[in-house]
Automatic annotation (TrEMBL):
Name of this chain's protein: RNA polymerase sigma-70 factor, ECF subfamily
Keyword Transmembrane helix set for record: no
PANTHER family in UniProt: BLR3042 PROTEIN, RNA POLYMERASE ECF-TYPE SIGMA FACTO
Species assigned in the record: Bosea robiniae
Pfam families for this protein: Sigma70_r2, Sigma70_r4_2
InterPro entries linked: RNA_pol_sigma-70-like, RNA_pol_sigma-70_dom, RNA_pol_sigma70_r2, RNA_pol_sigma70_r4_t2, RNA_pol_sigma_r2, RNA_pol_sigma_r3/r4-like, WH-like_DNA-bd_sf
Keywords: Sigma factor, Transcription, Transcription regulation
Domain RNA polymerase sigma-70 region residue range list: 24-90
Domain RNA polymerase sigma factor 70 region 4 type: 121-172
Length: 186
């Protein structure tokens, strides 16, 4: 079963095959979790979204039309659920005690300059990009998703993905240079 394609596993899941679900979950759980975590920036929320994504897969496997790869389909579901959750959280009113307990996790420029690890500095600079730019960078470079697949996941034209990538790389280069990293793309 571990050599079966994702599409074959989805067909088996549609007929109620729990083992196929376990195999597909083990193949994609980490990738989808990391993607969601970068969007929601909260491990507990990311775990909740992942649970919802794979529950939807279990319930809706018969609706998979194979217009995109299974991983693209899962990332699109995850993205929609994450953004929906973020919108709801933004709309919810914070009580004062909770608001005061939220720590500002953003590093200042001095701290970034002091860090020797290039990976940490790059992640800090990525966090300063707009959500749209961070999203395409994450999908293309961390998840090795094609421009075509990114367009499907995000629901925008391919040329818009290319434009966002161009501007995101340019802004990231500027941020890295300001952080003291001469070469932003190791």
């Amino acid at each position: 079963m571990h050599t079966e394609s994702d599409e074959d596993l989805v067909k088996r899941i549609a007929s109620g095959d729990r083992l196929a679900m376990k195999v597909l979950f083990s193949r994609h759980q980490v990738r989808v979790y990391r993607f969601v975590l970068r969007l929601v920036r909260d491990e507990t929320l990311a775990e909740d979204v992942i649970s919802d994504v794979f529950m939807d897969l279990w319930r809706q496997a018969d609706r998979f039309e194979a217009r995109a790869s299974v991983s693209t389909w899962l990332l699109a579901i995850a993205r929609n659920k994450a953004w929906s959750l973020l919108r709801k959280r933004r709309d919810a009113e914070l009580d004062e005690d909770y608001a005061e307990s939220i720590e500002d996790e953003a590093d200042g420029p001095e701290i970034v300059l002091q860090k020797q690890d290039k990976g940490l500095a790059i992640r800090a600079c990525l966090g300063r990009l707009s959500a749209e730019h961070r999203e395409v960078i994450d999908l293309v470079y961390y998840h090795e998703t094609s421009v075509e697949e990114v367009a499907r996941i995000v629901g925008i034209p391919e040329n818009t993905v290319k434009t966002r990538l161009f501007h995101a790389r340019k802004k990231l280069g500027e941020l890295l240079k300001a952080a003291g990293i001469d070469r932003g793309w190791p």
